[in-house]
Amino acid sequence: MDDISTISAEIRELLRDITNVTPDTTQDDNSSEEIGYRVVPLNPTDDSSSEEIRYRAIPLNPDLLAYCFDVILGFKVRYKIAEKVNYIVEFDYKGTYATVKHRKMSYRLSVDKKYTAEIIALLCKAKPLLEQLFILLGEKALIDNKFSMENEAPVYLSKLAFYQQRIESLETRRAIIEKKCEGQYDISYNVHGYKCMQPKGQAYLRSLSNEIEYDIEAYIDTFYSALEHVLTVLYPFTNNFPLVRSYYKDYIRNTRWAWDAKIKDVCGKVVPEELFNRLRRIKEVYRNHNAHGGFSREMMAFVNISNFGRYPLFVGKEYLKGFADGVPMDISYDMYMDAKAVFVEFWRILDEGFQVPMMFIKSGLPIPVETELYTNDVQTAEHAQWIIDKIWFEIDNQSNMDW
Predict the structure, then answer these.
(1) pLDDT, mean over the chain
(2) CA distance 68 to 119
(3) Rounded to whole angstroms, what are the CA distances from 86 to 65, 66, 104?
(4) How far apart are CA 108 and CA 316, in angstroms?
């Protein structure tokens, strides 16, 4: 018996006193009538022996308790049985009638008063066992590629658009203010009475320049995070993806599968070498110098050289080495425009080279590793869009609390 079966058996043994309702064995102290196998209480009174346990006092949430009844104990649990009613399960607990009801605005477990504390304690013990069980089931699913990935591509792309609009609007404002203040000076006098002059609006323009620089850095940082995220959810759509390997273990959790390895594995020759090198240059020069508080592999260190003194040395893989002549380090608007052109070209290549997969990724749908669940028999972009709309329609319906 494997660990999954062992824990399932342990939960089953823990909940052994929860059984199916039968007219012959289930005792209901309230006035009741039999309907088939069901014993339905009629006109409950204040002196009823049944006590209702409400949502927050029930140790297991509605889905976990339904899982116990459905999968562990073998009850026939029917879901969304009526408008505003998800499920109602009737069960026998030590010969007494009990129910659990999950409705739109309520979740309640009714059991004989003398067993209230006992059944709460049982469900408390079942919760950590269910957690162990789900971890084991999850580990197996990850190894077998039976999982889906959270698709945050629309969020990343929205952030990039936000930073682009912000940077460019701030730069436009800076240019307008510089033009208006050109040739004008603010005059002040120091404590000794000397006249001091400084360009008008200098303090505000300096603050504005800092804001633009910070936004450019955030834009670059967001792009490489977006790149890694999109390529991770895109890889299973490609012919390069090795189905026989665990995507989670061998790729997602592999620290060596960095952004450059992702481009090579996912895109192959689709991304030209020249564009790849430009992406590497921007990454090493303008992003990583901020990483880890400035102490990444692309950092500037100061070494002492005899008969010379303190020598600034760039430590990097390719672009930042030694003096790094010809590689400007400053964050500027011109540098931003160059980087933006590279980034836009990268997204264009992905959109054209992986048209249908990128449609699913940009839709925001969760991406299963078994991507054929989405793309099976899809031949055109129009068909893909129809499937996307259909899936979102079904998700929205399932999310409807009116059930």
Answers:
(1) 89
(2) 14
(3) 13, 10, 7
(4) 61
Can you say how many angstroms the Cα of residue 350 is from the centroid of all Cα atoms in its chain? 21
First to last CA, the chain: 39
Three-state DSSP class for residue 52: strand
Number of H helices and number of E strands within the chain? Answer: 12, 13
Query: Quick check: 225 and 155 in contact, CB under 8 A?
Result: no
Asked if 115 and 121 count as a contact pair (C-beta separation under 8 A), the reply is no
Which residues, 6 or more positions from 248, have their beta carbon under 8 angstroms from its beta carbon? 142, 143, 145, 147
Reported as a single tens digit per residue, the pLDDT across 365-384 is: 999 999 999 999 898 999 99
Closest by alpha carbon to 204, among 181, 226, 224?
181
Nearest residue to 231 via CA among 241, 221, 244, 242: 241
| pTM of the model as a whole | 0.83
Sign of CA dihedral 337, 342, 345, 351: negative
Q: Which residues are CB-neighbours of 277 under 8 A, at least 6 positions away? A: none
- % of the chain exceeding 70 in pLDDT: 92
Strand partners of residue 27: 96
